[in-house]
TrEMBL record:
It comes from Metabacillus endolithicus. InterPro entries: DNA-bd_HTH_TetR-type_CS, Homeodomain-like_sf, HTH-type_Tx_Regulator, HTH_TetR, Tet_transcr_reg_TetR-rel_C_sf, Tscrpt_reg_QacR_C. The keyword ATP-binding does not apply. This is TetR/AcrR family transcriptional regulator. Residues 33-52 bind DNA. Residues 10-70 form the HTH tetR-type domain. The keyword DNA-binding applies. Keywords: DNA-binding, Repressor. SUPFAM superfamilies: Homeodomain-like (SSF46689), Tetracyclin repressor-like, C-terminal domain (SSF48498).
Amino acid sequence: MSRPVGRDSENTKKFIKEVATKIFDYKGYTATSMEDIKKETNLSKGTIYYHFKNKEDLYLYCLTQASNDFVDKWGIISKKESNAEEKLYSWAKLNSMELQQPLTNTIPEYLVSVKKDDYTPFIDMFKYEFDIIQAILEEGKKSGEFKSDLNIESTTHILFSLISSLSNSFFFGYKTPEGQRNLYTNAIDIIIHGLKA
């Protein structure tokens, strides 16, 4: 991508985000500096700081955009599925594909490095992803696919946490996209039995 012109340009902000995401992917949150981003974008620090107040602000913007992209992809994929069970499998498959985007794997490092007591803004960033799970579970409950007494809130948190934790599966030998996809599918296989009516 060529360097966009204009400090106030939305294209400049998008360009910074794209470059910063690649650097955060590669180096992680802690090892990435604003100087790294300045060098890779070939923009002045003033231009970068015009759009983002600091590294944390830029990092959270990159994560928010990644979450928005996930939700947009889900909007397309979910229309192809006819019931809640199929949607749950498709959601897991999309998560396994997103695993190829290492930015989400930098989240634990970020949380350790910033040492904040209040994670509410961070959790709010993933609200739409929680909404996806909740909608699938509510659909399954309403259609009779899932238990009528299913606790939607706690099951949403369990599913999100379980599937998110699988992002570390490469440590355990799941290094290929196919192996990771199969692992995510197996996780849903196990969960489906507990959800069914």
